[in-house]
Task: inverse folding
């Protein structure tokens, strides 16, 4: 399958994301969202600066500097720095917090993402001198903010900081806090009067914390201000003290980034190394619950782990603190139906809370929906432990969700629908980070500046002298067996990656290369039945892509080569076949490619007689392109090809490439269904095709009933090669 890069389309989303940040820009910082959150939030600013770093270094720096204006004497970076120009629309504001020196900030902190953000700013910067000056300026403040956690929030020197308010975790109403908060019996008469403002901005009550939650949130703040924010007293009296897995994992990763900053600046690193060693060891040991085989936060009041099932427990991957064995166990959880498994279909990965639990909520804030910032970190963690396919699939969802449903605060893991505030800054910023990173990893440089290698002419990959020693009758079968062997040895179906390094040097690959040379004299008429032809060409197509990647020394993606699919080729039976010609000329019965005016084989083209008689649209789900939505590499057997293609279609149609939204009378489809609409028999038959494979749930019945009136929308489709 040829990947068509929707750069043009994509640009418009990049512009839209930048517009969200521009609209939320408040002069010296960026509001998380213009209505619900009108001030500067601590970790939001970290994420936001990471987005800016790619295209506006100045703004990224201003964002961070502005936040640090609110830093306390003891090093604490408050969770909110208030914009005194826009008071009155949020609760609680400075009048309620009553900070010791009257600073317009809150009196609690948040996960320290800022060393990480500063390092991003440095990495993305084109002017490294300026960037070094910025690091020099920030270093003492970053150091102080980390020291705060170790000197004020870790009284027993365990390397783990405690949080003393759920908001400090960033996951305000996470199910993890249900139990620890239970013990706080709030006496309404003692509670200071307050009025919630979060329900005044059009976000429905079901998506927000309950009033009981809020009473406890307020109770804790009231306690802190009564104790004049003296940490030792708070530690003694506060009924909520938790060594949160999320905050400590972010701290652990930020220590690693701070270490890098210190090294760049030539500063002493010993202290940071000690912090890092202590935190990563304690995450690994104390926060690991051996009985449950997962990481869990630790409740210092109850003196026990908090048994729950939120996405926080995957964060030690991001911290790089988990052992390999722990990582493997985490992976099993992430990639299960609880958190939306690969190719499970009908879900976006990963939701913030186990979807199979009774109290999972599709729309309530931190009690179920997908959050881009959490997933952005988990996906990096997965990648660093080698779980690339899952990481790619998460990135794909993080890009698809805002493209499909808008730059929302959080998303429904089943339907993708956006909730909370719209035009949410970190969703836009991290979308930009992922998109820039994607293009950079593709080796095409910054967006809009292609740096592709161009091959001057058709690049025949099986050039050479055939030995002629193999019986014609056996050749086809031998080549296919060789492909099958390569796939079974070097393709990891769990991770979805091809081990190109070992494949390149293997005896199996040498044998394959020798065998494909024999194809030069192969008698194509030997492939008589359609099933045989189909299996042969699908397998050959998938194999030539692998060989092309190896021979052309492609590092990240076939897009490093201009027109890869139309330039690499095999000589088969004396005729040249590029992957493009295999796909459109042969497998699609010489139908016109979607982006060309004419079929590839003109009337007198000798290759035409080998075309399939008709198009089987299921082939679109069998040709390898490596995207989340593509079928995994699979070997197609002539005798079973029908069932195998059914499985490929079934996987695709029950994935998030097909989303039915009954409430909007809309169906969202991968662009494949647009480009190849004719192969599916036109618009209506495309929907019938979908009905044939789709699981029969409520959405299926809706589609069936409304097939003639449902609105069809197509979505950007594009993704990376599996490697
Ligand atoms: C909510 C979120 C928190 C975020 C803040 C501003 O309070 O729970 O994580 O920082 O909104 O976006």
Result:
């Amino acid at each position: 399958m040829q990947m068509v890069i929707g750069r043009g389309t994509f640009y418009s989303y990049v512009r839209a994301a930048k517009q969200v940040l521009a609209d939320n820009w408040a002069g010296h910082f960026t509001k998380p969202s213009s209505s619900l959150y009108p001030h500067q939030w601590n970790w939001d600013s970290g994420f936001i600066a990471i987005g800016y770093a790619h295209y506006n270094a100045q703004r990224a720096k201003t964002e961070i500097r502005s936040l640090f204006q609110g830093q306390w004497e003891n090093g604490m970076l408050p969770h909110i720095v208030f914009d005194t120009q826009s008071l009155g629309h949020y609760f609680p504001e400075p009048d309620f917090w009553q900070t010791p020196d009257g600073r317009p900030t809150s009196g609690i902190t948040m996960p320290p993402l800022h060393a990480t953000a500063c390092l991003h700013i440095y990495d993305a910067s084109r002017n490294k001198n300026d960037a070094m000056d910025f690091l020099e300026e920030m270093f003492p403040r970053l150091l102080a903010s980390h020291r705060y956690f170790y000197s004020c929030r870790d009284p027993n020197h365990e390397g783990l900081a405690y949080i003393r308010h759920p908001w400090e975790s960033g996951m305000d109403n996470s199910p993890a806090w249900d139990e620890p908060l239970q013990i706080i019996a709030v006496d309404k008469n003692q509670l200071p009067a307050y009025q919630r403002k979060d329900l005044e901005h059009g976000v429905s009550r079901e998506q927000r914390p309950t009033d009981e939650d809020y009473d406890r949130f307020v109770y804790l703040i009231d306690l802190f201000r009564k104790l004049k924010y003296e940490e030792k007293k708070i530690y003694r009296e506060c009924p909520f003290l938790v060594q949160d897995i999320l905050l400590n994992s972010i701290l652990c990763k930020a220590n690693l980034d701070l270490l890098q900053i210190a090294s760049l600046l030539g500063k002493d690193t010993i202290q940071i190394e000690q912090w890092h060693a202590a935190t990563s060891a304690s995450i690994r040991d104390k926060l690991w619950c051996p009985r449950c085989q997962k990481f869990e936060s630790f409740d210092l009041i109850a003196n026990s782990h908090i048994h729950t099932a939120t996405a926080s427990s995957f964060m030690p991957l991001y911290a790089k603190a988990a052992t390999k064995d722990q990582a493997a166990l985490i992976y099993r959880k992430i990639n299960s139906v609880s958190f939306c498994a690969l190719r499970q279909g009908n879900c976006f990965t990963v939701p913030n809370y186990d979807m199979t639990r009774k109290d999972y909520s599709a729309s309530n804030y931190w009690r179920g929906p997908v959050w881009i910032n959490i997933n952005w970190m988990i996906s990096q963690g997965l990648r660093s432990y080698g779980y690339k396919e899952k990481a790619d699939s998460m990135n794909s969802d993080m890009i698809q969700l805002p493209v499909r449903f808008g730059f929302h605060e959080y998303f429904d893991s089943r339907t993708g629908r956006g909730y909370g505030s719209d035009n949410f800054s970190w969703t836009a910023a991290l979308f930009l980070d992922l998109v820039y990173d994607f293009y950079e990893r593709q080796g095409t440089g910054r967006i809009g500046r292609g740096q592709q290698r161009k091959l001057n002419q058709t690049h025949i990959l099986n050039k050479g002298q055939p030995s002629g020693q193999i019986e014609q009758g056996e050749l086809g079968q031998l080549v296919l067996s060789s492909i099958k062997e390569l796939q079974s040895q070097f393709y990891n179906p769990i991770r979805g990656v091809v081990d190109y390094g070992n494949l390149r040097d293997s005896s199996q690959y040498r044998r394959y290369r020798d065998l494909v040379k024999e194809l030069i004299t192969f008698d194509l008429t030997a492939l008589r039945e359609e099933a045989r032809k189909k299996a042969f060409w699908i397998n050959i197509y998938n194999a030539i892509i692998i060989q092309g990647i190896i021979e052309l020394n492609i590092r990240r993606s076939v897009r490093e080569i201009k027109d890869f699919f139309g330039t690499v080729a095999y000589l088969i039976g004396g005729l040249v076949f590029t992957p493009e010609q295999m796909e459109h000329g042969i497998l699609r019965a010489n139908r016109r490619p979607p982006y060309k005016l004419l079929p590839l084989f003109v009337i007198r083209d000798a290759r035409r007689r080998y075309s399939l008689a008709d198009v089987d649209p299921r082939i679109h789900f069998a040709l390898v392109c490596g995207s989340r939505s593509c079928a995994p590499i699979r070997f197609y057997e002539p005798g079973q090809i029908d069932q195998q293609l059914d499985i490929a279609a079934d996987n695709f149609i029950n994935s998030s490439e097909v989303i039915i939204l009954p409430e909007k009378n809309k169906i969202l489809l991968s662009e494949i269904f647009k480009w190849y609409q004719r192969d599916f028999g036109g618009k209506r038959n495309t929907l019938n095709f979908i009905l044939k494979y789709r699981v029969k749930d409520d959405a299926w019945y809706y589609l069936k009933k409304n097939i003639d009136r449902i609105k069809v929308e197509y979505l950007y489709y594009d993704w990376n090669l599996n490697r």
Q: What stands out?
A: The mean pLDDT is 90. The chain is about 45% helix and 5% strand.
